[in-house]
Every structure is written in C-alpha cells, then in structure tokens.
C-alpha cells in the first residue's frame, strides 16, 4: 500500500487521472480497515513531497467523497502534526502541511469559510506583541504561500476576507525592519534586483492578484474530478492555535532572493523564463529547492530528479536548476547544505548533453559580476570553481580572463583568478597548472613551494643550538630529554629556544603533513613546557611557522589547525597573530581569512559539542527519573542503557556546564577582539582619508569591510539582534 | 568485482566477526580511498577531503617493499558526519584526473598501510595485471 500511494504520479502508461481513480477505488474497498495507515502515508507524502501536493489533495478529496469519516480523521491528524512540527521548529514541514490544507479547499474536503478563519488566525498570530520579527515573518510567509492554491477560490467567494487579510499583511510589510538586507545580498549592486524574500513574494502575490488569481503553474488534478467532488460533504477545520513563542524556538532566517538569469540569457528558441515577479517563478523555484534539499544524500538521484522535473517542458530547465543551485551555494550566512555537495551535484549534471555549456555560461556571468560580489560569496565561488576545474582537467578558456592579470591586486577579478589558481595548485601541482594556462598567467600562480630555513647556515648566530636540537630529533630523544637539551643553553632566551626548536622540527618534518603531525604529537610536552600559558609565545610560535612556510599557505593552515586542536595554541592567539603588524603583508589574502574562520569554527565547534553533551546528560537524567517506574523485567532497554553510558555520567553535568560557560566567554571575547581590531583599522583609514581629502571607499576599504561582514555572517552573531 | 575484492580485503585484514565489523563500519569516521594515482600526494588528498570537514589524519598506502605510494590511502575525520559527506560528494569524482573510490573502513591499524599484493603493491592491481 505504501508503494501504491507514494509512487502515484510517477511515470506510467496510464494518465495520472486514471491512476488516481484506480487508486481511490482500491483504497475505498477496505477504507474502514486501512484508513489509519492511509492517513499516515498521505501525511508522510505531503510532508516530504510538496511537488506532489495536488496529487494527494485530489486523492484525499476522492476518498473523503466516499467516506466522510476519513476526511475528518485526516484533518485531525494533519493539525496535530502541524502543532508538533511547529513546537519542534520544523517550519518547512509546517509550510507543506498548511499549503496542503489550502488545497483541500479546492478538493471539497475543507470548507472555505473555515480555512479563511484559519488564515485570519495566522494573521492574528503574526501581529502578536513582543515576538521576534522572524516569527511574524514566518507566519506572513505561510499565509502568502497558501494563496496561489486557494486565492482564486477566496477571490470568488470570500473576497472581503481575502482583502482584509491582504490589507493586514501590507501593513506589516510597511513596518518590517529590513536593515539586514544589505548584508545578505550576494552583490552590493546588480543588474538584477536582489530583494528581501518577503518583499519579492509580496510583489509576486500582487501580480497574481492583478491577474485575478489565475496562475499557470499548479497542476490542479482535481479539476478532472469535479463531478465526483461536487457532492462531497466538507469539514470545518478545527480551531488551530499555534504554540506561543518561546526562547527555544528557532525560526528560519530571512534571505535575499538570488537572481542570475533573465529571459534574455536563455536560448531564443525554447520556453521563456517566467519573470522575476511572476508567481510561476516563485513556485518553480520552491519546487527545485525542495528537490535539492530532499535528495542531498545522493547526488546522482538529485541530478536525475532535477532533470526529470515535472514542468521541464514549460521552462528553460537548465537555467532554473543552475540559478537555484547557486542561490543555495551563495546563501548568506550559510548554504543549507555543505558547499561541496553543490560542487559534486554540478559535476553530475555535467554528464548531460546541454548542461555543461549553461554551467560555463553561468561561470562567465559570475566572473563578469564579481566586482560587486560579497567576499564570503567570492570565497565559495573560488572553492566551487577550483573543484570543478579539477574534475575537468583544468580546461577553461583562461585567455578570456587575461585582462585581470594587470588589474589592481585588490580588484575582485584579480583576486578571484589568483585564488582559484592557488586552490587548483593545491588540488594538483604547480607545473600541471602552468601547462594549461596561457602565457602571461604565470604571475598569477603561487611561487614554487619551498621551505625558508636558514639555521643550517654555519654563520647563523643560532646555528649551534639548532645542530644540538637536530641531533636530538634524529636520535629520537623523548620530549622530556628534548627539554633538557634546550635548557642546557643557558645563554639563549626563551624566545630563541622556541624559535629554534620549532624551526628545526618543521625543517626535519617538511616532507608531508603526517611527518609534521607525528612530530607535534611526540613533542607535545616540549611545546607545553616552552610555551606555558604565554600568549606572547603562542604568537611567536605562529610567526615562526609562517616565517618557515610563507611560500606554502596550505602548510601554515594545516599545522595551525593541528596546533589549535592539540590546544598548543588558542583561537585568540590566532586572531591576534592575523591582526599583528608582521602579518600585514598577507592580510589581504584569502588564506588568512580561511584561517581566521577555522579558529572561529574551532571555538564554536567545541561549544556546540559541549552543549550537545549537556543536552544528552539532561535527557539521561530525565530518563533515569522515569526508570523508577519501569518494570524490572523489561529486557528491551538493556541496549539503550549501554548506549546511554557512552554519553558520560550524570555527575559530569556541572563540569560540562562550567565548560560551556567558559567557552561561551572565550567566543564572546574572541569576537569582541576581532570587532575591536576592525574598528581600529577602519577608523584610522577614515580619519586619514578625511585629513588627506581623498576617497574613503578605496578598494582596500571595500575589502576590509567585506571581511568584517564575513566574520559576523559566518558566526550568525548578528542574528541575535533581529529577534 | 571491485566490490568483492574490497570486501575480501577487509575480511582478510581485520580480525573479528562479520557483525563486529559491520558495527564498527557504522560508527567509523575512517574512509579507504582507492584508485589514486601513484603520484598523488598527501597534500592533495588533504585539500580535497578537507572540503567535507576537518581531517584528523591521512595515511598513504605504500608498496610493501619500495615504501612508495601505490594508489590508496586512509582518511580519518574527526566526525562521522563529515566522513558521510565525503562518501556522498567525493566518492566517484576526480583527483589527478582519476576517478577515486571511497569506502567505509573499520579504522587504521599498523601494517595496513602496506600493499598486500605478491609484488608489494595492491591486490587489485595484481588482479589487473593478470
């Protein structure tokens, strides 16, 4: 039965209508026996397959027409689930369920008047006092999202209510705080409008309204069953009261609508791309978004389902797919799925005949518009494009981009190409990349990797200690013995000892990352002894690492990351080093910001891990309270008990909570430090510009401003203020 | 054929019951990576696989006699979910223009970095030579 219901609507020799009719007949036969199962399956399908929503609303309509009780039970189930998902902050599923309820009006399951009341209740909820804007926004979004399905019906039979709902929404739209829009736009300016998502949906609904609520996207299968549905007894929706806002609710973040293409970019022969403010564009993009999110576990299935999109003959499908993929990849602050998934999905899509040229066209458009692209998006574009190149033998019409070579080193096109080539070299090797590039590009490729080690020079003042330490390493002395060797040299400062020790280690371990990791692990105690709790020495350690490996950014990143994870250095030291005078020379390179983000992620990752442990311990505590009431003979819980033990003991809870508070403080201080540094940098620039009467918005300033936003976009720190 | 040989490989190397192996695979954060070019470096593997998450360590597979890379390695992540992303997104894509293959692995242990073919390389290669 599950297969029958979940697969209806897929490819078939019969028409969908006749399949629905047959399925309804099969189910009707024994609906008394199976109605609970059918309801469960329909609920599952509607939650997870919104593209097939009208198929299931039609099916439910047919079943309800035959058995009133079925429809009644289904509605109770849907509303109960709606409440559960709302409590759990599963808002995308809530949206699907609400839209399904709207469409059940069209299939004569739900009375229009009760659904109108439902919408009015949502309006009421949206305008509660003292709730976060993101909560109001979500209810408005849900209301507007239902209207393409049910708007026509309301327009014809409940016009007054429809108008009053729209008036209320319009009032809300006028008052919304949209200060975040600038930070969420992919481009600071663009030939395509980049709108706040609610503004865009509102404009789309207004156009739908001016078209008398007639749209050409939704497949209304139930029209074929008008005769059967006309006599159905309808149900009033039970009163639905959303759970009040609580601090544990997590609402979807606002976003800005991404636009890459318009109809002029698509082939002249072939379907037209619906306009940006058409409801068709919105509905289509919603569905493509869903296909990607639902298939993120399997990129081949994802590609197949995208290319099989049921509206593929009415839109330029390749362009729509690409626009949606890039809208997710460039979503600020975070893409909904790990960026590498989009890279592998696009590689999969390149296995078709026509998609490769559209991807190339998109890459070219993105390059042309990169001058105003936000830095966080440029970073993702660099990572995507270099990964893509590595799967296609690095073949590209690089010559078309040769004009960027002579541009200012802070021009976005120059940055992009330089950083792409650095990533390509990391995925490959320098000579290989040089071979595929036209003449003139070699200055954009990183210098040949080499280590900067001069302690081997007999004339170096620190040579003798370096020799002793090197003997120690080669002799495989223990970490403790190494400390003794170093401390023998009483005339060397602590600083010098640390520099020499680390430089020699890096030189001897230079062959691979693994050699470095093994050495760091073996001599962990030596590092701890030499550094102690000194932030100054941590900074010195990082500077030494850079001095030795300044021509190999990947090595600096990887070893710094390792030192962080080993707790030899702190994230705060990484930040201090990045903003230090000595690192000005690298301050504008992408790898520096990669590293700062790694340091931030390290702290937030630790904090999330500890919070997760706390949650498990609290659940365990609750579980043990219930344990008193359990039968002693219940063997099925033995495995669960053993599993719970893996999460640690309940007695650990206070220590974990202390740790979480400490990490929270570290993160706060780290962010304040970074913010402080940015303020100083930018203030100095502004003051100097005003004194000199020169432009403030130089390329340097634009870059630094982008990096400041980058940091806070990444940690979603700003989200706190929108609540 | 390749799948069978991998299974055989795992079975031969790792002591323990089939069920124990399956349980360890379900919790593992370690991947076996096959079909690498002999010239692919640890640094390249690191760059590619760190796009799925934090890599804890990489162990390059070596020819047992020559101690040179022979086309496979192990990648261990700090977190299982990052290894899952690598399985979904990197398996079957290219590194050094070769389509690489990833499989769950029960976890590295000393000795497993050496190829077990008669000539020191991979058994898979030996089969190909025949």
Summarize the structure.
Chain A: It is found in: Nucleus. By secondary structure, chain A is mainly α. In chain A, 64% of the residues lie in helices and 0% in strands.
Q: Could you walk me through the main structural features you see in this protein, from its secondary elements to its overall organization?
A:
The complex is a heterodimer of chains A (723) and B (130). With 723 residues, chain A is mainly alpha-helical. Chain A folds into four domains: 1-217, Serine Threonine Protein Phosphatase 5, Tetratricopeptide repeat (Alpha Horseshoe), CATH 1.25.40; 278-444, Serine Threonine Protein Phosphatase 5, Tetratricopeptide repeat (Alpha Horseshoe); 462-569, Serine Threonine Protein Phosphatase 5, Tetratricopeptide repeat; 570-624 and 650-722, Serine Threonine Protein Phosphatase 5, Tetratricopeptide repeat (Alpha Horseshoe), CATH 1.25.40. Chain A is built from 32 helices and no strands. The model of chain A is unreliable at 630-645 and 717-723 (pLDDT under 50). With 130 residues, chain B is an alpha+beta fold. Chain B has a domain at 19-107: 2-Layer Sandwich (Alpha-Beta Plaits), CATH 3.30.70. Chain B has helices spanning 2-13, 18-27, 42-49, 80-89, 123-129; strands at 30-34, 55-62, 69-77, 94-95, 98-99, 101-105. A four-stranded antiparallel sheet of chain B has the order 2-3-1-6. In chain B, strands 4-5 form a two-stranded antiparallel sheet. Chain B is globular, with a radius of gyration of 14 Å.
Helix content of chain B: 25-40%
> Structural class, from helix and strand content of chain B?
alpha+beta
First-to-last CA distance of chain A: 45 Å
Structural class of chain A: mainly alpha
Low-confidence stretches of chain A: 630-645, 717-723
In what order do the strands lie side by side in the largest sheet of chain B?
2-3-1-6
Q: Beta-strand level of the residues of chain A, as a percent range?
A: under 5%
Helical residues, percent of chain A: 55-70%
Largest sheet of chain B: 4 strands, antiparallel
Residue stretches of chain B low in confidence (pLDDT < 50, at least 5 long) are: 124-130
Order of helices and strands of chain B: HHEHEEHEEEH
- CATH level-1 class of the largest domain in chain A: Mainly Alpha
Quaternary state of the chains: heterodimer
End-to-end C-alpha gap of chain B: 14 Å
Q: What is the number of E strands of chain B?
A: 6
The number of distinct helices of chain A, counting runs of at least 4 residues, comes to 32
CATH homology group of the domain at 19-107 in chain B? RRM (RNA recognition motif) domain
